[in-house]
Amino acid sequence: MEREYWAWSKRIGRGASEQMMKIAYSSAFKGFSNEPAIKLAEKLASMAPGDLNSVFFTSGGSESNDTAFKLSRFYWELKGQPKKKKVIGMRAGYHGVTQASQSATGILATHIFAGSNIKGFYHATPHLTNCELGDKNDPDYENSIRSLIEQEGSDTISAVIMEPVQGAGGVNMPPEGYIEAVRKLCDEFNILFIADEVICGFGRTGKMFGVENWNVIPDMMCMAKGITSGYSQLGGVMISDKIREVIINYEDVMSHGFTYSGHPTACAVALKNIEIIERDGLLNNVKEMEEELRKGLAYLEKKHDIVRNCRTLGLLSAFELYNPETGKSFDSSLQAAATVVNECFDRKLILRNIGDFKVAIAPPFVINQQEIKNMIDIIDESLTVFENSL
Predict the structure, then answer these.
(1) CA Rg, the chain, in Å?
(2) Which burial class, exposed, middle or buried, applies to 89 when counting CB atoms under 10 A from its CB (0-12, 13-18, 19+)?
(3) pLDDT block averages, 10 residues each, the chain of length 390
(4) Domains of the chain and CATH, by start
């Protein structure tokens, strides 16, 4: 993989260098733009599902989600419904580190840090499909999105935001029919549906965008990370035609924008990155390697009785560590996930522990069968070391 990696890196590096020699930076204020930004906007419109045909560029995921919240409130203001300002996120959802995106995040630690909890942001329990379809007899109904809407009033709710697959919250996969149920719920109550594709977008799940695994079209779609494969800082918010048509008729100045919105070098990098993904068939490789990764995790689960709840979509995967004697997760003092991740690191494999008992895996799109085998072997060894320490 190393040889291929450097070949791709050189192609992207050349694209960035060529653009910097033309025009490295230009402002997007006062209606200005630049050739790479325009071309990237056109490309994204051709790729995005449904009528997501316009993009507001940012520098990253937090800015993208912040922008989506502002645009949703602005949209409803222009529609004559100024009370629609509240945003519903999901428990265990992650949306960034700015004040608003951190408030939308449903992970407790982010709210403890710096008191980041703006009023008007609420958190529902995710994946309650029956509740979102209207089953009030479900014991979890009070924690659902539908219940929150009923409590707060749909005339006060601007948007619902969620990741198609929760990333930092635990690589939590939605149950069958859930994403579709939330889309239907938002339509029922006239609420915008925002898909946070910062983790899932640009091939991570085996589709170009995560929502495409469920044939759902959001009203807004936030992106970053994968748009440049991390080679440059860039994000964006795709918006639907119905939102765009309202906003472009605003006669005053829209008081929102970033210094690096539509940065020409970053946009040139994104164009080259997308070209590589498409031309080299990387999504096909993601789907093929998904099966290899799934087989490898099944092997680990069979061999190690501490491994449970393996899940994979594309090349986004995780497993959990449980005490086989109690059937519960290990005591936090053992730092089970961190220990396994550290053992993997010592063997030159980088994984991520999420909390005390979850381990996330997100290999590069260019990984091959032998490299997945090597990865599984390292995890196997690391699990054995942890088991022997008990």
Answers:
(1) 22
(2) buried
(3) 68 90 88 94 98 97 98 98 98 96 92 82 98 97 98 98 97 98 98 98 98 98 97 97 96 88 96 96 97 98 98 98 95 96 98 96 96 98 97
(4) 2-279 (3.40.640.10), 282-389 (3.90.1150.10)
pTM of this prediction exceeds 0.90: yes
- Say how far apart CA 92 and CA 83 lie, in whole Å: 27
Residue 174 near residue 141 (C-beta atoms within 8 A): no
Contact between residue 272 and residue 307 where contact means Cβ atoms under 8 Å apart: no
Q: Which two tokens stand for residue 183?
A: 């889309």
